[in-house]
Design brief:
By secondary structure, the protein is mainly alpha-helical. It is built from 19 helices and no strands. It is globular, with a radius of gyration of 23 Å.
Length: about 400
């Protein structure tokens, strides 16, 4: 086994969990059994790895332990005492006894199959997305509830109903052929993007980003584009890779958040930016626009600007207008108002943002944006109140420190 060194154990486990869980679901055709077995394996890893060091192949180690834990669970369950199940258990036990976690054995990558199973048309759209984020993205019910702006208990119920629907309806664990991929594509795209969003501003914890989730989302988007190479799947890939190209500049040497306005643009990954600019241009030339292509175009304009002041704000506002035709939500309206503030000034933009208050009463970026505009107008007491509300709504320590600094400076 390798020693853990300076790499956090939690990060090592999280990097392997999604792939292991997808493979377990494929073999056992049960979300609950796979999740329980993986949890058993993770608990074992937490006990064993710090003492003996991490295995050379952490994924294979977790997979082997989880399979045996799953088999033990089935054997203890009297509801599974059928002859067919017994034979399955014997076959699994025999095949997995030969897996050596210390070798280069690689478990099958079933994550794309899992995401399409979770996004089957028989499930509600919200259920599709929530279940995929829970199983493949490794997000907690609380984190997913935040993304949907609902309570945690409501999200737990939503995930449970989705699992039950897959089991009761006998939904196949498969990637549909190209002729049938369309009905599930929109939900798959949304799910991948929400996974990336969670990586870009991790809700809970001491760090602002979760690089493992970002890499997973980009990998899935790339696989999806290979499978369904239409402009919107490419647009999602471009959007995430353009965002990711700026990741290194989001934190300074003291782990302090740096906003886009103040980022060191020389720290951006300009090779990726250049590549995605060309890729996005090819997509847009097909004249089949969609929300992900439009968002990617907005990000591309930010990446193309040599500094904040030189950003093409009028074109960005036009793109938000175009985006609203596909996604007419308060969040899009908020982003449009923030962009318009660079053109018409804080006072006019504040009027637009105020109109969104009833809908975004628990949305942290709303209060942070309004606080910035109020501060620019010299209304410091009101700005402090909004910054305090934004701080209360943030569960991320890096983000909280940044907001506290801004509040205390007003």
């Amino acid at each position: 086994m390798n020693q853990t060194g300076n790499e956090p154990l939690a990060g090592l486990i999280r990097a392997e969990s999604g792939r292991v869980l997808a493979a377990l679901i494929k073999y056992f055709s049960s979300f609950d059994l796979a999740e329980d077995a993986l949890q058993d394996a993770l608990e074992q890893a937490i006990k064993v790895w710090p003492q003996k060091g991490t295995p050379k192949n952490g994924g294979a180690w977790l997979y082997k332990v989880a399979v045996h834990r799953a088999i033990d669970r089935i054997r203890r369950d009297k509801l599974h005492k059928s002859e067919r199940t017994a034979q399955i258990l014997l076959d699994l036990a025999q095949s997995h006894e030969e897996v050596d976690p210390e070798t280069a054995y690689d478990i099958p990558d079933e994550r794309l199959r899992l995401i399409f199973t979770c996004c089957h048309p028989a499930l509600s759209r919200d259920g599709q997305i929530a279940l995929t984020l829970k199983t493949l993205g490794g997000l907690s019910a609380r984190e997913i509830a935040r993304a949907f702006l609902v309570s945690e208990p409501a999200m737990v119920q939503r995930i449970t109903r989705a699992k039950r629907k897959i089991s009761d309806a006998g939904i196949a664990y498969e990637v549909p052929d190209r002729a049938h991929i369309g009905p599930r594509l929109a939900s798959v795209l949304t799910t991948i993007y929400l996974i990336y969003n969670e990586s870009y501003a991790a809700f809970e914890g001491l760090t602002l980003t979760r690089k493992d989730l970002a890499n997973e989302a980009i990998r899935l988007a790339t696989l999806l584009y290979d499978l369904a190479p239409d402009p919107e799947t490419g647009g999602l890939q471009a959007l995430m890779r353009l965002h990711n190209a700026r990741r290194r500049a989001r934190l300074d040497a003291d782990n302090t958040l740096v906003t886009l306005q103040d980022q060191d643009r020389s720290a951006w990954d300009h090779n990726t930016i250049d590549e995605m600019q060309i890729f996005l241009g090819d997509l847009l030339s097909q004249h089949r626009p969609g929300p992900y292509q439009i968002q990617a175009a907005i990000s591309a304009l930010h990446c193309a600007a040599p500094d904040w002041q030189a950003t093409d704000w009028p074109q960005i506002v036009e793109l938000y207008d175009a985006l609203a035709k596909y996604d007419d939500t308060a969040v899009v309206a908020l982003n449009r108002a923030v962009a318009r503030a660079q053109i018409v000034g804080a006072e006019h933009a504040l009027v637009e943002i105020e109109a969104l208050a009833p809908v975004l009463a628990d949305y942290q970026p709303f209060f942070a944006a309004r606080a910035d505009l109020l501060a620019r107008l010299g209304r410091h007491k009101e700005a402090k109140a909004d910054f305090s509300r934004a701080i209360a709504l943030s569960g991320n320590e890096v983000e909280r420190r940044f907001l506290i600094k801004k509040r205390d400076g007003n």
